[in-house]
Design a protein that fits this description.
This protein is mainly alpha-helical and 319 residues long. It has 15 helices and 7 strands.
């Protein structure tokens, strides 16, 4: 979250030869990307980049499942930022539930107001940064302070800010479950050698409660104490012990929760872990598989061709 959001909010402020390093100047029909200037006739670079991005998504999905969803998707990253602000003001889950269920007191009113103020300010800053990639951000800031923005700039700051506020503050993982098409077709890129969040059924079953430190073998039980912590922390509300489900976004919250319980029970970690179905079943995992090789080959060809075209474009610009 820190790395990705830091890059988004800071990249617009980086100078480059007397101008903004990343600037998409629509009125002048010029896109500045570091030392490269792209014109409308260079839009095939954008198509090329989108094809590379799609193939990269397929490649990493075949290798590591929904690692994009769990760690790099903007919906996940901004939601984590909003959750962090919520925890900062209202506390963790039990404290928030207690606050929500309690009467409206001065403390509750202050905390709810402070959370909303943080969310709104962060969302507006997000919209401001977005517009700053299309209008020089160093000139945009003083105009915002002077309330002298144009109509379109005002619209996009408010629109993008509202979208961030709604998606990350309220809809959250519902976007992943019901609106994102990737959740529906990503299973087509999985196989039994794909790295996914997995529950070790052979080690965990049969489930059952027991005293801390009790030997599960003497009780004819597995390592799972059926505490349901993995379900409680899951942002999409699934039970990973029932197997891989399309709602799983591979955020690994269940892994962290289960490892904490295993530590308290003095059991080895890894009852829930990143693994492959073949590894869970005791077989060898194959990394180099036909689909992985095909994706890697196509990515290599496309990236090599893109680099060559960019070099040619730079030479023509300098000429």
């Amino acid at each position: 979250m820190v790395v990705l959001l830091g890059g988004y909010y800071l990249a617009a402020w980086i100078p480059w030869n007397g101008r903004q390093a990343l600037l998409f100047d629509l009125p002048a029909r010029k896109f500045y990307v570091l030392g490269l200037v792209l014109w409308p006739q260079d839009f095939f670079f954008l198509s090329w980049l989108l094809i590379i991005a799609a193939l990269s998504l397929f490649f990493f999905t075949a290798l590591a499942g929904r690692v994009w969803c769990g760690y790099a998707c903007p919906q996940t990253v901004w939601t984590e930022a909003f959750l962090w602000m919520e925890r900062l003001v209202e506390g963790r889950g039990p404290a928030r539930r207690k606050l929500d269920a309690g009467p409206w007191t001065g403390n509750k009113l202050w905390r709810k107001t402070a959370k909303q103020a943080l969310w709104i300010a962060f969302a507006l800053w997000t919209g401001f940064t977005f517009v700053g990639y299309f209008t020089p951000i160093r000139a945009l800031g003083p105009r915002v302070m002077a309330l002298s923005l144009g109509g379109w700039e005002t619209f996009w700051i408010l629109f993008y800010g509202f979208a961030t506020y709604g998606n990350a503050g309220f809809m959250r993982e519902q976007v992943c479950k019901y609106m994102c098409p990737y959740a529906r077709f990503q299973s087509a890129m999985f196989d039994r050698d794909t790295l996914v969040v997995s529950y070790d059924e052979r080690r965990g079953e049969p489930r059952g409660s027991r005293a801390r430190g009790a030997d599960p073998r003497k009780l004819n039980l597995g390592s799972c104490i059926d505490c349901r912590m993995c379900v409680q922390v899951c942002p999409t509300g699934i039970d990973i012990r029932k197997g891989l489900q399309y709602e799983c976004i591979a955020c690994a919250a269940c892994i962290d929760a289960c490892d904490g319980v295993m530590d308290k029970m003095q059991y080895p970690r890894g009852l829930i872990r990143y693994s492959t179905q073949h590894a869970i079943e005791g077989h060898t995992t194959r990394v180099l598989r036909p689909r992985v090789i095909v994706y890697a080959t196509l990515l290599t060809v496309l990236c090599g061709g893109s680099s060559r075209r960019c070099c040619c474009a730079r030479r023509s610009i300098s000429t």
